[in-house]
């Protein structure tokens, strides 16, 4: 995997993340056999989750972005940890829509109206949950709106996924900048100007440039430092043990019912599409233990 995220500080007044996520999004598309517009929507959410996850403190912390919406995709879930291990799944993976008026994949129509949930599980009793209404369904705008409303942080967000004719991912990446408390509006205005003249993060990468080049493009002439570089991977941490725990949590009564009625159970991992089968012997053993 050659995907990574750069973390930068700018003039002590902002922190920024620049992500290259092509292979990670491609792996998600391969696993879910998603159509181009679903790949674009899921890829944007994956990229955002990876950049937000990079801000977590502990290895066991988990960030989840979930969209529930009335568009044909129905919803998308993406999670990331501090080490940028990300996973995701769309509710419906084979949505086919005409291109939008700009000739681009119509992510907004695919997502539709609904809510964006941000859940941060920091190992405390209750996870932090923030919810906003989707403002555009393009995901980047929706996240900027979330930061402004829910966390009151002025932010600039840019997410992009370019899908090839063969449905593989040609380029994927993102940019996220968040102002630190007390920072002047000057920097965010400057970045907004840069972003408005910016074609797309994917065409930038398509021309052979890197996240380091993107940092220079945005922050040229400013005092900025790359403070961290983290590899990004699609990684599902499901296991037979975890699935067995989920079975146990159903309770003795429910398990006995499954054993009597079906004599077996198959549990499916939405994130990596792996199936875990438990036969009669397995179920008896779980019931007895
Ligand atoms: Zn899995």
Task: Kindly list the characteristics that best describe this protein.
single chain, 13 strands, 2 domains, alpha+beta, binds zinc ion, CBS domain Like
Outline:
Helix content is 35%, strand content 30%.
What is the CATH superfamily of the largest domain?
Hsp33 domain
* Helix amount: 25-40%
- Mean pLDDT metric: 93
Distinct ligands, ions and cofactors found in the model: zinc ion
Quick one: how many beta strands?
A: 13
N- and C-termini, Cα separation: 41 Å
Q: Spans of 5+ residues with little confidence (pLDDT < 50)?
A: none
Order of helices and strands: EEHHEEEHEEHEEHHHEEHHEEH
Total domain units: 2
What is the general shape?
Answer: globular
Number of helices: 10
Q: How is the secondary structure organized here?
A:
Blueprint: E1 4-10, E2 14-20, H1 22-32, H2 36-53, E3 62-69, E4 75-80, E5 85-90, H3 107-111, E6 114-121, E7 128-133, H4 140-150, E8 155-163, E9 169-179, H5 185-196, H6 201-206, H7 211-219, E10 224-231, E11 233-234, H8 240-248, H9 252-261, E12 265-268, E13 275-278, H10 280-288
Helix pairs in contact: 1-2, 9-10
């Amino acid at each position: 995997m050659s995907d990574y995220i750069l973390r930068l500080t700018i003039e002590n007044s902002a922190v920024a993340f620049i992500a290259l996520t092509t292979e990670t999004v491609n792996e998600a598309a391969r696993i879910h056999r998603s159509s181009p517009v679903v790949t674009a929507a899921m890829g944007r959410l994956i990229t955002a989750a990876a950049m937000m996850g990079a801000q977590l403190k502990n290895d066991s912390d988990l960030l989840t972005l979930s969209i529930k919406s009335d568009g044909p995709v129905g919803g998308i879930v993406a999670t990331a940890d501090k080490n940028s291990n990300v996973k995701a799944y769309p509710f419906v993976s084979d949505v086919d829509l005409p291109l939008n008026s700009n000739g681009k994949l119509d992510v907004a129509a695919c997502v539709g109206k609904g809510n964006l949930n941000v859940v941060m599980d920091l190992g405390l009793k209750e996870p932090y949950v923030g919810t906003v209404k989707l403002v555009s369904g393009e995901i980047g705008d929706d996240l900027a709106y979330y930061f402004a409303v829910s966390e009151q942080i002025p932010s600039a967000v840019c997410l992009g996924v370019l899908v090839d004719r063969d449905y593989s991912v040609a380029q994927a990446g993102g940019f996220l900048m968040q102002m630190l408390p007390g920072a002047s509006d000057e920097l965010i205005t400057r970045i907004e100007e840069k972003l408005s003249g910016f074609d797309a993060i994917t065409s930038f990468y398509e021309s052979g440039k890197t996240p380091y080049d993107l940092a220079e493009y945005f922050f040229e002439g400013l005092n900025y430092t790359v403070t961290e570089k983290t590899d990004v991977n699609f990684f599902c941490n499901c296991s037979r043990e975890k699935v067995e725990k989920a079975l146990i949590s159903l309770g003795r009564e429910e398990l006995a019912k499954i054993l009597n009625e079906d004599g077996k159970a198959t549990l499916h991992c939405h994130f990596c599409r792996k199936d875990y089968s438990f036969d009669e012997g397995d179920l008896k053993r779980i019931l007895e233990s």
